[in-house]
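User: I'm new to structure prediction. If I give you an amino acid sequence, what do you actually give back? Let's try with this one:
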Amino acid sequence: MEFLASATVVCNDHYDTDGFGSLLAVLEPGTAFAHEELLLAAAATGDFGMWVTARAFAIDRIVARLGDDESPVAALFRGLSGAEKSLLRYRWLIDHADDVLRVPPEFAPLFADERAQVTAQIDACRRGALQREILPQLGLSHVVTQQPIARMTLNTLAGSWRVLHTVLTKDGPLHRYHDRTESWFELLTFRAPPRRDLRPLRSRLEALEPPRDGARWCVDAPSEPIPELYFGLPCEQAYGAITRELRPSRLAAERVRAEFAAFFSEPTHA
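Assistant: Good question. You get back a string of structure tokens that encode the predicted 3D arrangement of the chain. For your 270 residues, that looks like this:
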């Protein structure tokens, strides 16, 4: 840790859980190293949208929602926004890191309800509420459910980096694909499949199912953190939130999966 001795300024360009862990590692390395695995698990929960442990989930949500009205320390950040709010939240987290990592019960309103929902969904899906077909050679998984499920539930159970999700409804299937965010990062520990530009696949699907009643096959560029391809109403994606409004498709789940499989089977020319 001697190399940190001459550091006078530590900065992070956005506020999130792995940013908290990174700043803690520089400013309070003893505390960070003592909780290394827990901090890594919390960072993976936030950045990768995956269930790791109940405690890691709670820490990620405490960090993310520290300034929300339900937070016991919300008054400290009221009226603040932008960089000023991020800086003050980081300072509070560094000063109270040991307490935060123990997950004080007074912070339960920030995570308890969502944690219960996700764990209940994961349990139900493992008991048969989810059908899954994995194409390991393509890094593609097709998950079919009868009800919508949280993105974290989907990522945790998908078994692949490329995830096509179909929800079966009485009006027709809802289709949405996303590249998991792992492929947006350069990581030393593992490597997700390289991203493909999904716009040619969107064109194929649109040829099979032209736009109607305002709904169409919509797609994001591969440079987005979590690019999606879905049938529904066109709109911008809000990072970290599931904001797209899907519409029932006339294409059966098997047909859509076949189109995705054919697309990812084609050689790339990058």
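You can read the tokens as a compact description of the fold. Here is one thing that stands out. The chain has ten helices and six strands.
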